[in-house]
Amino acid sequence: MAAVEAAREVSTLKDFYDLMHETAVIRRGIVKALIESQPVATSSLEGLRRSRRALASISRSGEQYRLVLDSTNHIDVDLSYEIGELDKDILYVEKGEPGLIQHLDNLHDDFEQQVSKVVGLLSGMHFNAFITDRDGTINNYCGRYGSSIQSAYNAVFVSRFSASRVRHPIVLTSAPIRDVGLIDVSVSPPGIFIHAASKGREFIDMHDRWHSFPIDDEKRALIESLEARLRELVSQPGYQKFSLIGSGFQVKFGQITLARQDISSSIEPDESKALLHRVSEEIAAVDPEGKHFRIEDTGLDIEVILTISRTGNDELKDFDKGDGVRYVAGAIGLDMRRGPHLVCGDTSSDVPMLQAAMDASPNDTYAVFVTRKESLAARIEETCPKSVIVEEPDVLVTALNCLSSSLK
């Protein structure tokens, strides 16, 4: 029997991110093989196993894993996403789809019943547009965007559905497109999805062409000035950690995100609030009249968004995902008046996507939202009568996979 290779040492945050992005390369190879009905290379499976052992070998601090930031600082992180998704992928390659589905059924309450609800709503349908958020919707939520590498099973499931059932599949997220963005953490094959980022202000079409929503010179100069100020801020010792937790520091197209907390609450509340105040001061220095930027504070992230004019008047508004849907649709020639459409999300920021579809095609729009919040579920059901609420992204992607393999 061949000796098991020793676990790779992962001690710094850089080591960790390097390892996770190596898993993206491995997973892309696995997905390509499975989509093409080819066997998965033994080396790919062993690559996943090595990565899993490397994560398990990281020093622990209670339930958290401790990673070194620099010579004097460290950060304790929850790696349940990274480890859990590797475990699922290893099981998927080793035991096939039945083994994975059984594992998901054991993992999630009422899994089979929830999958059946989605399949019952959408069975036999082909969609003009499939418009979906990523994190928390078709991808399990991760505490750090930079390590939220899509799992192979997830990519296979959503790619099969999109290729077989959808004319215009669009993943629309608030994250940036690159460095580190939607393209970097996705492992689906090229040409399957339109990847729309920055709430839809920028996107890469299925022919790998980049498109962007127009921004006038004045606003472009202002956001570049604010970006420089915030880069300087997060380079300072007391603020550097905010660029390393959760969403980190993301420069998007027409938008900037800076994390002030993560899902593990690793930042003291007073310190988190102080950052929000400091960012507000930086914005006021660049935009003293408050005309060009809006702040959206999620409690975890500070989203700084360039305003746009409402159609037909001079009133300013935040650019939301509904605006993103309309921009992408216009740019690719997608007639939103012609359904059916399927819209998926998991938070209130995804509701404008659904509203945009309902405005264009009120009788031929369907929705599946992933949430445990009763208020959001009620809002979705009120907005779109043809909707289903589920509790986990695994439920949604499994249902999509079932739909792709049903009779056409």
What does this 3D model show about the protein?
With 408 residues, this protein is α/β, with parallel strands linked by helices. It folds into two domains: 13-213 and 321-405, HAD superfamily/HAD-like (Rossmann fold), CATH 3.40.50; 217-318, 2-Layer Sandwich (Alpha-Beta Plaits), CATH 3.30.70. Helix content is 43%, strand content 18%. The protein has helices at 13-35, 42-56, 80-107, 111-122, 152-165, 182-185, 217-234, 269-286, 321-332, 351-360, 374-383, 393-405, and strands spanning 60-61, 64-68, 74-77, 127-132, 166-172, 194-197, 202-204, 210-212, 249-252, 255-259, 293-297, 301-309, 316-318, 341-345, 365-370, 387-390. The strands form three sheets. Strands 8-7-6-5-4-14-15-16 form an eight-stranded mixed sheet, with helices on both faces. Strands 9, 10, 11, 12 and 13 form a five-stranded antiparallel sheet that branches. The chain has a three-stranded antiparallel sheet with strand order 1-2-3, with no helix packed on it. Strand 7 (202-204) and strand 8 (210-212) form a beta hairpin. It starts with 12 loop residues before the first helix and ends with a helix.
